[in-house]
TrEMBL record, chain A:
Domain of life according to the entry: Bacteria
Membrane topology according to the record: Multi-pass membrane protein
Protein name: ABC transporter ATP-binding protein
Domain ABC transmembrane type-1: 58-342
Lyase is among the record's keywords: no
Species name: Chengkuizengella marina
GO-annotated cellular components: plasma membrane
Keyword Nucleotide-binding recorded: yes
Membrane spanning stretches: 57-82, 94-114, 174-193, 199-216, 291-320
Subcellular location: Cell membrane
Chain ranges of the ABC transporter domain: 376-611
UniProtKB/TrEMBL annotation, chain B:
Domain ABC transmembrane type-1 intervals: 16-298
UniProt entry tagged with the keyword Transmembrane helix: yes
Name of the protein in question: ABC transporter ATP-binding protein
Lineage of the organism: Bacteria, Bacillati, Bacillota, Bacilli, Bacillales
PANTHER family reported in the protein's UniProt record: ATP-BINDING CASSETTE SUB-FAMILY B MEMBER 10, MITOCHONDRIAL, ATP-DEPENDENT PERMEASE MDL1, MITOCHONDRIAL
Classification via InterPro entries: AAA+_ATPase, ABC1_TM_dom, ABC1_TM_sf, ABC_transporter-like_ATP-bd, ABC_transporter-like_CS, P-loop_NTPase, Type_1_exporter
Primary location recorded for the protein, binned into one broad class: membrane
Domain of life, source organism: Bacteria
Compartments (UniProt record): Cell membrane
One family name in Pfam for this protein: ABC_membrane
Length: 616, 573
């Protein structure tokens, strides 16, 4: 048993050594600590957002001042009561004091309650506004904004960062403010009562600060290591669990288990020291509190006996109470400070989005169009992304007559998607012009133009909700019969009917329940519902089994009928049926013509055809 | 939660030490107001400097003792909680590895990862807190009441009235609050979901002009969240002021009744000071108490999620090694599938129905069919990732149920549909197939898999890092590395589950040719006629059954399904 007791002392102390882990130094500091770049401007912006509720916030602050004051007054009156009435046997005086005290206590509880409730109401209003502003902003941002950023990172701004701000507004702000006030109040009353005792009480502060400094110096390093180790373990489990089948097939279970143990052990060793050393802080606080008590009581007692500085029993009692009241806000301030910083950093990241440059807005002078033929002309169009000088499209010219199908082919990165992005006005051309029915695209009202277009994008995005609502998404006013008609045309009707709840079948978020091919049919049905003269189609690359493929091909054919179609083609059928094939390579248009023409030429198309399209 | 104790049991000595020192700390803290009362009454009131000093020294000594016991408590508490965390993680991971695939599929792998990390950390935290303050709060409250009875029993009666009331009030509030905060969480999830949807579907929303529709939807959800949050907080925020008020009234009672008692010499000033002191302590621990209730309820949820996994049992596939035929090497590689049927646990219909076929040693057999026709299932049955519901599979005449699973799998090279590669270098990834492979063997495998030429074009060649931190490989490159990983095992049986789908025609042809040279029995599933065409034998699968079989020339004339697939891929209508 004695051996067992000694075990904690045998935990490797390697992690405490100064030498930094090589891998560790490569962790970016920004990932771990919430560094704020410009605190004051962020606070300014936050205040601007909050100014709508200026009055409520001022009331809250007023209440905090009152409640902090009342909180300090309570112990003071108790001490005075003991000194003046109890020691002197003055029951009547005590009665009056108690009545006053009761009033103070009730008022105190009430103000604390009301300030918190009011603050939460106000902060939730602010957060609601912040969310709305942010959300509306998202819809005014150009597509390039979304293409440049990782979804995960954006999501974390939209959720975690706002949550941080929310919890700061909910409680941290009040606590921070009242901690500061209490601290100031406590110290001033203490000085007023007995400067000498105050000085003695403060003598523990340096010990506290030095102690905390030594501890945090160790722990911040250890926490970084711990976070790093946790990340390693996280990545490892994620990888091995998603590759579980491979592990089984190659009988590598024991190998991954032993690797896991190694990583687990690293977490354990660092975790032990981090927890132990960080755990010293509350213990240190507690001890100093205790020590302070002993100190105040003992020295105070001596002062009373030798009549130094007018110290009384009541004063000692007040000091005992206040000495705790001033160490507690110190502790809280340290805690609140961290959450305040991380909230401000969060707010800063939210404001970064709110201040992003917006998409070109439609002007009144832009021409609105109500119906078009669907003629599309690319004339010497070049395009490069703003922050990148290299051109993605170089001097592209082609014409799509109303009702024609244009297939765009080329290897990945040739600029196929960019052409679609330009027609849909997701991006503006850098050079050259795009003409739609003889109008310059730049002069057209974009919303009215998009109303003339139907889209089938590569990933058929479905929302959580019924199949009916998902199809109707492209035209919210569509009647049920129209939805069914569109589904029939898209060839989706039969499989929808076969589902237990038909059109009311709820789709889950992950899209489980229906196959990839069926999702594409729904996307086609969605496009069918729009009375458009232009169709933009990005064919899916994922392999769908041949039978479903045939259905999709057929419904696409119906969709293309009577519409000018611009198609990024991955299927041989599509290419063969196109009126014109535009062959792209590294941003250049290298060939165009029909399939038969192009296959005759000994060019890039034939090369593509052989490697990408031919199955047999 | 009970099960959590079984993990702590291993470290009971350390846990007990931590608890002992916690109680020591607690005792000293409870003694403190009592000591101060003594000092006031014996020392200050009696004008006795010696008593003041004596009690002062006792108090200072006590504070040093508090510090020492606090440190020791932390040390042992951290040791226990970290060990418990380590043990749970290890046991969980080992347990998960022992799952058969069908059991494994019951959990989402992302949820397993959170259970292994976040949930374990939660429990670890609870153990740590448990050994430090969790037990302290109730004991301190009880202790403070007991001590105040020692100080002055009649006055201490006030605690008996108020504290239980406050206690039950807190529990009632937090029970209600937990309920309404779970609603808040639900509403928050809803808001975040719409955010995520909008990010992912931004193109769709833009082209269909659904901006205002989405903004309305979002604001609706956001307003619900706002209302729910406010109403949840309204409840919890009222608990502190009410408790504060109650305890403050107790202080007032002490002052009033204490002063009456002092006049009749039944109480002393020091006693009243001590009682007030105990009251403020109880008040501060009541607020810790409410935090504890929250932490505990969260830990309870974590514990449930962890033990859900640990309590899931898996039918043990290979129990007793002795009873199995010890097949060290598959010599021939004959496979016989004999009236095999299989149904996934979650499915309502059979995935494969009464299938029989033979593959002779060295033969190449292709299985063609739509998604969901049962191709992959056959491969998973041969490698015993799943057990046949009916029928038997024989390899070299042995029923695979009688072969040790590890041995069986060691003799098969299986390339999965999804080419999952691990973080690490290319070489390490290929060595996954055979940790003992020499460089020469790796080279042979990569050359056969037609990936060697690509690898040497990378700057670090075979030491190129792949995976999350490394280079991005194309789908075709990944597939070929996965094939090399299987080939390096020099298997007698090679299973390719649609694993050449991303390769272009010439590369695929070259790859299949070099596999043929390796003279292993090859079973491959595909959706492409071009892949199937050159196999010795082709099985056409439809809805879990073999619709037809033969070679390409036979099937093209005979099987309508085969013809249909052929036509769709050949561009004819």
């Amino acid at each position: 048993m004695f051996k067992e007791m000694l075990k904690p002392f045998q935990v490797s102390r390697q992690v405490l050594k100064k030498k930094e882990n090589e891998e560790l130094t490569s962790i970016k500091v920004s990932e771990i600590s919430n560094t704020t770049k410009n605190m004051s401007t962020t606070l300014e912006k936050l205040w601007k957002l909050m100014s709508e509720w200026k009055n409520q916030i001022l009331i809250v602050f007023g209440l905090v001042i009152i409640s902090s004051g009342l909180g300090l007054l309570g112990p003071l009156m108790v001490g005075l009561g003991i000194d003046h009435y109890i020691v002197n046997f003055d029951q009547l005086g005590l009665l009056w004091l108690l009545l006053g005290l009761a009033l103070i206590y009730i008022l105190h509880s009430f103000t604390v309650w009301y300030q918190n409730i009011l603050m939460i109401k106000t902060s939730q209003n602010i957060i609601f506004k912040m969310r709305s502003v942010l959300f509306e902003k998202l819809h005014r941002l150009p597509l390039s904004f979304f293409d440049k950023r990782q979804h995960g990172e954006l999501m974390s701004r939209l959720t975690n960062d706002i949550e941080n701000v929310s919890s700061m507004l909910n409680s941290s702000m009040i606590q921070f403010f009242s901690s500061v006030l209490t601290l100031i109040g406590t110290v001033s009353i203490m000085i007023w009562l007995s400067p000498l005792l105050t000085l003695l009480t403060f003598s523990v502060i340096p010990i506290l600060f030095i102690g905390i400094k030594i501890i945090t110096k160790h722990t911040s390093k250890l926490y970084k290591k711990q976070q790093y180790n946790m990340g390693v373990l996280n990545g490892f489990t994620e990888e091995t669990l998603s590759g579980q089948q491979i592990i089984k097939v190659f009988s590598q279970e024991n190998r991954v288990i032993s690797e896991f143990k190694e990583k687990n052990k690293a977490i354990y060793e660092v975790g032990f020291w981090a927890q132990t050393i960080a755990g010293f802080i509350p213990k240190l606080m507690n001890t100093l509190n205790f020590f302070n008590y002993a100190f105040i009581a003992c020295i105070g007692g001596i002062f009373i006996l030798y009549n130094i500085g007018g110290v009384t029993i009541g004063i000692i009692l007040i000091f005992l109470e206040y000495s705790r009241q001033f160490i507690r806000p110190l502790n809280e301030l340290a805690n609140q400070w961290n959450s305040l910083l991380s909230a401000i950093a969060g707010a800063e990241r939210v404001f970064e989005i709110i201040e992003e440059k917006e998409d070109r807005q439609d002007k009144q002078t832009y021409k609105e169009i109500s119906s078009i033929q669907g003629e599309i002309i690319f004339s010497n169009v070049s395009f490069s992304y703003e922050d990148d000088n290299s051109e993605v499209l170089k001097h592209i010219s082609f014409t799509a007559k109303p009702g024609e199908t244009i297939a765009i082919v080329g290897p990945t990165g040739a600029g196929k998607t960019t052409i679609i992005n330009l027609i849909a006005c997701f991006y503006d051309v850098t050079e050259g012009d795009i003409w739609i029915d003889g109008y310059q695209l730049m002069d057209l009202d974009r919303n009215s133009l998009r109303k003339q277009m139907a889209f089938v994008l590569q990933e058929p995005f479905l929302f959580e909700g019924s199949i009916r609502d998902n199809i109707r998404y492209s035209r919210l006013t569509a009647k049920d019969e129209e939805v069914i008609e569109a589904a029939k045309l898209a060839g989706a009707h039969s499989f929808i009917e076969a589902l237990s709840e038909g059109y009311d079948t709820k789709l889950k978020e992950d899209g489980s329940g229906i196959s990839q091919g069926q999702k594409q049919l729904l996307a086609i049905a969605r496009a069918m519902l729009v009375n458009s003269s232009i169709l933009i189609l990005d064919e899916a690359t994922s392999s769908i089994d041949s039978i479903t493929e045939i259905t999709i091909q057929n419904s696409l054919k119906r969709l293309m009928q009577g519409r000018t179609s611009i198609v990024i083609a991955h299927r041989l059928n599509t290419v063969k049926n196109a009126d014109n094939i535009v062959v792209l390579k590294e941003g250049y248009l290298v060939q165009q013509g029909s399939h038969e023409q192009l296959i005759e030429e000994d060019g890039f198309y034939r090369e593509l055809y052989e490697s990408q399209f031919s199955y047999c | 939660m009970k099960k959590l104790f079984s993990f702590i049991k291993t470290y009971r000595i350390h846990a007990v030490i931590a608890l002992i020192f916690m109680f020591l700390e607690l005792g000293l803290e409870l003694l403190q107001p009592f000591l101060i009362a003594k000092m006031i009454d014996d020392g200050i009131q009696q004008q006795n400097i010696h008593h003041v000093l004596r009690w002062g020294i006792v108090l200072v000594t006590a504070s040093i003792l508090v510090f020492v016991s606090g440190i020791i408590n932390t040390f042992y508490a951290a040791y226990t909680s970290q060990n418990v965390g380590y043990d749970i993680r290890e046991k969980l991971y080992t347990h998960i590895q022992s799952f058969s695939l069908s059991v494994f599929k019951q959990f989402q792998s992302s949820s397993l990862v959170t259970r292994l990390t976040n949930d374990v950390t939660q429990l670890q935290q609870v153990v740590f807190m448990g050994l430090r303050i969790m037990m302290k709060a109730p004991f301190l409250i009880i202790g403070a009441i007991v001590m105040s009875f020692f100080v002055n029993a009649p006055l201490a009666m006030f605690f008996i009235i108020t504290v239980p009331f406050v206690f039950f009030f807190l529990i009632w509030i937090y029970k209600k609050a937990a309920h309404s905060f779970s609603f808040v969480q639900g509403k928050l999830d809803q808001v975040n979901k719409i955010m995520r949807d909008n990010l992912r579907a931004i193109r769709l929303i833009k082209v269909y002009l659904r901006k205002h529709f989405e903004i309305e939807r979002f604001q609706g959800a956001s307003a619900k969240l706002q209302r729910q949050t406010v109403s949840a907080f309204r409840l919890t925020e009222s608990s502190t002021p009410i408790n504060m008020l109650l305890m403050n009234f107790v202080i007032m009672a002490f002052l009033w009744f204490g002063s009456i008692q002092i006049q009749t010499d039944k109480a002393t000033v020091g006693e009243i000071v001590a009682l007030i002191n105990y009251t403020t302590r109880i008040l501060s621990f009541l607020s810790i108490f409410s935090m504890l209730i929250m932490v505990l309820s969260r830990a309870k949820a974590s514990a449930k999620r962890i033990f859900d996994v640990l309590d899931t049992t898996t039918e043990n596939i290979s129990t007793n090694h002795d009873t199995f035929k010890n097949l060290d090497y598959i010599i021939e590689g004959n496979i016989i599938i004999d009236h095999v049927s299989f149904q996934y646990a979650s499915a309502q219909t059979l995935a494969v129905k009464n299938i029989s076929f033979k593959v002779r040693s060295g033969e190449t057999v292709a299985i063609i069919g739509e998604t969901g026709s049962g191709k992959s299932t056959i491969f998973q049955l041969i490698t015993r990732l799943y057990e046949c519901s009916e029928g038997d599979i024989f390899i070299d005449g042995f029923n695979i149920k009688e072969i040790d699973v590890e041995n069986l799998r060691n003799n098969i090279g299986f390339v999965l549909q999804e080419s999952h590669l691990f973080t690490g270098t290319i070489k390490e990834n290929i060595k996954w197939g055979n940790p003992l492979a020499k460089d020469k063997e790796i080279l042979e495998a990569t050359k056969s898999a037609q990936i060697h030429d690509n690898i040497i074009k990378f700057r670090d060649q075979y030491d190129t890092l792949i995976g999350q931190k490394g280079v991005n490989l194309s789908g075709g490159q990944k597939q070929r590395i996965a094939i090399a990983r299987a080939l390096v095992r020099k298997p007698k049986i090679l299973l390719l589950d649609d694993s050449t789908s991303a390769l272009d025609l010439q590369t695929e042809a070259k790859l299949l040719q070099s596999i043929k040279k390796m003279e292993c029995t090859t079973l491959m599933s595909t959706q492409k006629i071009s892949t199937a065409k050159n196999a010795d034998h082709i099985l056409v699968m439809e809805k879990g059954e073999i619709a037809d079989q033969g070679n390409h020339d036979q099937l093209i004339h005979r099987s309508t399904l085969y013809q249909k697939i052929y036509e769709s891929q050949n561009g004819k209508e």
